[in-house]
Amino acid sequence: MSAFATTTAVILAAGQGTRMKSAKPKVLHAIAGRPLVHYPVEAALEAGCGEVVVVVGHGRDEVAAYLAKAFGPRVKTAVQEQQRGTGDAARVGMTAVRAEAESILVFYGDVPLVSADDLAPVVKALGDEPGLALATCVVSDPFGYGRVMRDEKNDVVEIREQRDLRDDRDRAVCEINPGIYAASVALVRAGLASLRPNNAQGELYLTDIVSYARGANERIAAVASRAEVLGGVNDRQQLAEADRAMIDRIARKWRVAGVTVRDGARIESSVTIEPDATIESGVVLRGATKIGRGAVVDVGCVLTNVIVGEGVTLKPYSVASDSTIGPRAQIGPFSHLRPESDIGEDAHVGNFVETKKTRMDKGSKANHLAYLGDGVIGANANIGAGTIFCNYDGFRKHTTTIGAGVFIGSDSQLVAPVTVGDGAYVATGTCVTIDVPPDALAIARVKQVNKEGYATKLRARMKAEKDAETAKKAQK
After folding, report:
1. Average pLDDT of 311-337?
2. pLDDT for residue 1 is more than 60
3. Taking a C-beta distance cutoff of 8 angstroms, is the pair 197, 203 a contact?
4. Residue 193 pLDDT more than 60?
5. What is the 3-state secondary structure (H, E, C) of 383-406?
6. How far apart are CA 278 and CA 255, in angstroms?
7. What is the separation, in whole angstroms, between the first and last Cα of the chain?
8. Alpha helices of 97-228 — where are they, by DSSP H?
9. Could you tell me if residue 17 is left (phi over 0), alpha (psi between -120 and 50 degrees) or otherwise beta?
10. The pLDDT of residue 159
11. In this predicted model, which residue has the larger pLDDT, 231 or 216?
12. Catalytic annotation on 38?
């Protein structure tokens, strides 16, 4: 069994986050489409930890509910009733650790940029002599961070927090503590039991476990880490910075995987994209969206939970949610696919066309200015400009069924429930209220009447009325 399988990650996520100025728990604020706490948990699991315990406090029910939905039984929670510091939070987390665990990995839940590659070396550093391992990082401006203090032999002796620095020599130390620790279960339990609130904050500092290990003659291994793991989020500005960094990381990942991603595109972490797809600037891809091979998502499109097939073209400023777009279909520009739209292979949905809970079969087209709600449209049907599926009677929604090869003339209204049979034609301007048989022509409009010379009389009358109104105003 690997060291990681017997390692439990304890993630500290109980803080209230008052600087967020929000009723929402800090760790549920999102970057790149997922809550802050999602990323540290995911990193621990990807690093191979056999179990994850998240310490919750403020908004505990909401945080626990999210973790259960996102990760299932692989992740447990432990409740810190009172905010008594990071050491107390770690102690609470240890109460939920399984008996089989041999080592503990402890870090924070508000560091979304941490990755499995940051965590794994710290666990590996325990080696055959468990002791204590911690990440360290050298920065040009260490203000605000706990400093890694070393002795004359360059061995780590303690972590000293910013408020507890003693003099300029302490303040000049540029090696800081990112807050990632690994140790044997026994050392963590003993170290946490030894903590005392002998500091400026009057809290139990998790960092004091380092000086405990030193005093107990335990081996302390320092692992050089990236500055990126320092990205703890405490306010909305830091949230925005972390979000920007994560979006850049995601774009870089897809570019390396063979996807063209233009600057300014926003791809959330849950999105998947196949090679040779193109994502243009201003595009937003959210949720469980999947982009197929060779698809083009043009400028300004916004997709949420959309399955986009191979070779699809989404023209600029199209919006879609909870829908499916089949291979080689063309959408837009300025189209709106509302939930449960299913656009078939080689189908077209064009300028200012809106669909909702409608299926369009292979090769069908609605290229201009239409509302297609609660519809079933057969293969190779053509829906003319200005067509409306009148699907709502004020109480219930009804279905419009269009057969294969049907031609619907422009500015037609189809009052559901209604069916137009295969191969039928509906004449321009028709209001369809009863079923149309296959291969029939439906016409329902008022007969045109031309009144010769009437336009001249009409203009004269309207001019006289306007002149009278102008004269009346002049008299006032």
Report:
1. 98
2. no
3. yes
4. yes
5. ECCCCEEECECCCCECCEEECCCC
6. 10
7. 99
8. 116-124, 168-171, 185-193, 208-215
9. left
10. 94
11. 216
12. no
pLDDT band of residue 2 (cuts 50, 70, 90) is low
What span, in angstroms and rounded, lies between the C-alpha atoms of 453 and 331?
47
Per the CB < 8 A criterion, the answer to whether 235 and 19 are in contact is yes
Half-sphere exposure at residue 383, Cβ-oriented, CA atoms within 13 angstroms = 37
Alpha helices by DSSP H, listed for 72-207, are: 86-94, 116-124, 168-171, 185-193
CB-CB neighbours of 287 under 10 Å: 14
Contact 217, 132 (CB under 8 A): no
Residue 103 three-state SS: strand
Element (H, E) at 104: strand 103-108
Q: What tokens appear for 214 in the block?
A: 């030193």
Q: Mean pLDDT over all residues of the chain?
A: 95
Which domains are seen in the chain, by residue range? 7-230 (3.90.550.10), 236-442 (2.160.10.10)
Tens digit of each residue's pLDDT (9 = 90 or more) over 38-54: 999 999 999 999 999 99
Alpha carbon distance 91, 94 (integer Å): 5
pLDDT tens-digit map of 220-271: 999 999 887 876 899 999 999 999 999 999 999 999 999 999 999 999 999 9
Question: Is the confidence at residue 92, as pLDDT, over 80?
Answer: yes
As to burial, measured by CB atoms within 10 angstroms (0-12 exposed, 13-18 middle, 19+ buried), residue 14 is: buried
CA distance to 385, 420, 445, per residue, from 413 (Å): 11, 12, 11
d(CA 304, CA 286): 5
8 A C-beta contact, residue 351 and residue 375: no
Task: Say what the pTM is.
Answer: 0.89
Exposure letters 357-382 (e unless 16+ CB within 10 A, then b): bbbbbbbbbbbebbbbbbbbbbbbbb
* Catalytic residue (choose from 29, 38, 336, 368): 368
